[in-house]
Design goal:
The protein is mainly beta. The chain contains one helix and five strands, in the order E-E-E-E-H-E. The radius of gyration is 13 Å and the shape is globular. The model has no long low-confidence stretch (mean pLDDT 75).
Length: 81
């Protein structure tokens, strides 16, 4: 069974997907650490499965990573026709 990560857009900093088409979240980038030291990781949806890409490894993750989605810096969407 394929699960879909859904986000609710509540701030003006994150633009909502276009109303004239359907989009799905394809990936997001999150920063972990402090202002002086840390690194970025990417969450990518590949064929309905979410994976976490870090510096040294790739691992499967639960699709509903709401806490990570709330603090992401970049969101990538793909248009669903």
């Amino acid at each position: 069974m394929q699960q879909i990560l859904q986000l609710t857009f509540t701030t003006k900093q994150i633009p909502a997907p276009s109303q004239d088409g359907h989009c799905r979240l394809a990936g997001l980038v999150v920063y972990s650490g402090s202002a002086t030291k840390g690194h970025y990781v990417a969450y990518i949806n590949q064929n309905g499965r979410w994976r976490l890409y870090g510096d040294a490894r790739v691992q499967k993750v639960a699709p509903a990573a709401e806490q990570e989605a709330e603090r992401a810096y970049l969101y990538f969407y793909s248009k669903v026709s």
